[in-house]
Amino acid sequence: ALAVSVRSAAAQRVCCEGNVVVFEEPPSCDCMGSVLEKEINALKPHANFRLWLTAEPHLKFPLVLLESSLKVTYESPPGVKKNLLRTYEAWSPQFIEKGHQPVRSQALFALAWFHAIIQERRNFIPQGWTKFYEFSNADLRSGADIIDRLCTSTGSIQWDFIHGLFENAVFGGRWTTTTIWRCYELPSPVLR
Fold it and tell me: CA 39, CA 35: separation in Å to the nearest integer?
């Protein structure tokens, strides 16, 4: 269906006129990326032509298409549950079980849960926050690195130290109003 759409007269006209075309790749299709790549290479586009492609991530997506893209965006899935699932898909089982410490795994879950909550909260601006705050996978990775280093070190786990780093640097460092600070104080009992 996608290859037929690319070859259609409407798509050819839009390409020649320099407009924007949006294609959605079916989530279950592993082969359409290579077909789309061949079709795009066959086009003679106008200088202002833009193609937006939305696709589900899959291992067989052509690397050449990604490399030739001007911009690639990987958006957070809607909903806390989907965000948690995406986080756990990104973490390997070996990373989660490292050191065979249940407390470390529980702390990683608390971090993933908190990150999912603040990611979802961005959808409710201005009701959720006074302005848009950018939280990304880099924040999640930083938090996971902190938990990893402090939970695998010898001695007791310094929960107050971890809590302070999360609240004042990793997540809370961006918040500009005291109201947000009070609403999003990290759940200390969860981390203890």
Answer: 6
